[in-house]
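Fold Annotation — chain and its backbone
Encoding — discrete vocabulary of local shapes
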Amino acid sequence: MKIRDFDISEKSKTFIIAELSANHNGDKEVAIDTIRAAKKAGADAIKLQTYTPDTITIDCDNEYFQIKEGLWEGKTLYELYAEAYTPWEWHEELFGVAKEEGLICFSSPFDITAVDFLEGLNTPAYKIASFEIQDIPLIEYAASKGKPIILSTGIATEEDIKLAVDTCRNAGNEQIILLKCTSSYPAPIELANLRTMVDMKKRFGVEVGLSDHTLGNIVPIVATSLGSKVIEKHFILDKSIGGPDADFSLDIEEFSSMVKAVREAEKALGEVTYELSEKVEKNKKFARSLFAIKNIKEGEEITEKNVRSIRPGYGLHPAYLKKIIGGIAIENIPLGTPMKMENIKVDQ
């Protein structure tokens, strides 16, 4: 599976997405600067969100539409999304800036009109947000475009995930990535439950990754070690600009640190091999081997009192100890001499 020219597969590096979300704070120049900063911070992609307050909700202030707790307490849904959305007239320019920077740019559509709009921009993939995973018509329509579908699972039950995955497959689209996500802002680390990500890969037969709202690097590092092929984190140019998502977004220094940690985790994982590197092979001289620990005269019997397994590693392998015990030295073997089979007569 490829997103633009990035190959997402078992042996590839992790696809790191900087989520712009509302972190432009209504200023297009801030959005542009954030995209450029994401490249410098090491991101592979920048992700937008494509909706308007009217495509995601309605302007209503009754009890159903009021936010009563958390970061956005006191706002209505319409007020929140009016503050947070990325104007559609910016999208073409933002896609262009990302291309200039060598970043892959794509978006989360929140309704069918957004899919049509993004098709016009030749988006290389679609990300379905956690709270849209139950919007089966949206998933079906996005999947029908034949591009990779990234599904966040923050509020999803197992049945929700199965329905979403089946919907993509029934639309003829097998390019599916499930992201383990905790829809809490910020998310407590103890709710990450990353073993679920591993289970999703086996259970649904898809690539998996992480959409992370925790603070710091630990969860992305652990996810990488468990096989995550995608890491998505909210990215902000400077937390001092504020905005709805600032509290759980990473700034340039924090995002760069996360990217560095993920890339180092990838190096540490390496590959399955039992061959020794040249450096390790050289250090084998510090391993144990069989040495004369006393002066042994020609004709003297080899015993555990005059030969031992000690460091360094220039003598016989310690596995030969039982074989040579009881043998006879065929020449003088001074203290500190590595034992060799040619110095000993042993019974066959």
